[in-house]
Write a structure and sequence with these properties.
With 298 residues, the protein is an alpha/beta fold. The chain has ten helices and seven strands. The chain has helices at residues 3-19, 33-49, 66-74, 87-96, 134-144, 166-174, 188-218, 227-236, 241-264, 267-279, and strands at residues 56-60, 79-84, 101-104, 117-123, 145-156, 177-185, 287-294. A seven-stranded mixed beta sheet has the order 3-2-1-4-5-7-6, with helices on both faces. InterPro entries: Methyltransf_25 (IPR041698), SAM-dependent_MTases_sf (IPR029063). One of its GO terms (biological process) is methylation.
Length: 298
């Protein structure tokens, strides 16, 4: 394993510890409704072209396994696999999807023999690879698929140097696969709502921690506290200010519960998807999802 891959694994583990599984928000951020609606779009595209029961299917870059869970619902008899470089995320996925198998590895160096997969899902991973490595990664993906096997691959467009754009993405994929269908990834409004709710929840958490800290200090020894801070702590420790302070904390906790409910519920994102569908002629796609077949040997 290269030093750069090890460093990336450590970075991703730190990311999931901070923001995802059992993170500072106190719930699985990656279970939010936005991802449920996004992955429903992926599964619908796969089922449209692959309605029959599946064999061995890999979700490359599976994170906490949310797409795998939806694939399990669509294909209950399929043998599901997930791979990711983040061990923390895989640990969560293993716990919640005991029927699937998982491997911690990078792409394109997947520990799978040729022609071993019936299907392969790769969502928002290709753009994270160095530009020079992308053709090799897609070529290996073709090798590990059985003849007639399918690939469902999605990306977000990036304007920065090395970022994928519609034509460059299509050209890259068509070098190894036959593109059967393509749908726009159009979730501008949904992602704006999700980001705004996450920021609001973060602020509410920070305020609640600050209030809790002041309350704890007010109930302790104030001998080492001087000046205005001491007067403030004395004030909030005596009625009626202590009652008002308790109401503030209660309101802050209620606000957190409401925001969490909105983040975790798929309903607001489904409504926004309907609006986004109506506005799609006016909105530039955020990305694209392709359904492909392994190109036959010439």
């Amino acid at each position: 394993m290269s030093s750069s891959l090890k460093e990336t694994m450590q970075t991703m583990d730190a990311h999931y510890r901070s923001y995802g599984v059992e993170g500072r928000f106190g719930f699985d951020l990656y279970d939010k409704g936005l991802y449920q609606v996004r992955y429903q779009q992926v599964v619908r595209l796969i089922r449209k072209h692959q309605p029959a029961e599946q064999g061995l299917v890999l979700d490359l870059g599976c994170a906490t396994g949310r797409l795998l869970a939806q694939l399990q619902g669509a294909y209950p008899n399929a043998q599901l696999m997930g791979s990711d470089i983040a061990g923390v995320a895989l640990g969560y996925a293993k716990e919640h999807l005991p029927s699937a198998t998982f491997a911690q590895c990078g792409w394109p160096h997947l520990p799978l023999p040729a022609a071993s997969l019936d299907g392969l899902s790769i969502q928002e991973v290709l753009g994270h690879l160095p530009e020079a490595m992308r053709p090799e990664a897609l070529a290996q993906s073709r090798v590990i698929l059985k003849p007639g096997g399918w690939l469902c691959i999605g990306i977000k467009y990036r304007d920065k140097p090395g970022g994928l754009q519609p034509q460059s993405f299509l050209t890259l994929v068509e070098a190894a696969f036959e593109v059967v269908d393509r749908i726009p990834y159009q979730m501008w409004l949904s992602e704006l709502l999700s980001d705004a709710l996450s920021r609001s929840l973060d602020r509410a958490m920070q305020r609640n921690l600050r209030l809790a800290g002041w309350q704890q200090q007010a109930g302790g020894d104030l001998a080492q506290v001087t000046g205005k801070k001491r007067l403030f702590l004395q004030l909030i420790s005596t009625p009626p200010m202590s009652w008002l302070f308790a109401l503030l904390r209660g309101a802050c906790n209620l606000w957190q519960v409401i925001i969490r409910g909105l983040i975790l519920s798929p309903l607001p994102y489904r409504l926004l998807r309907t609006v986004e569908g109506l506005l799609s002629p006016l909105l530039k796609p955020r990305g694209e999802i392709l359904f492909c077949r392994r190109r036959q040997e010439s």
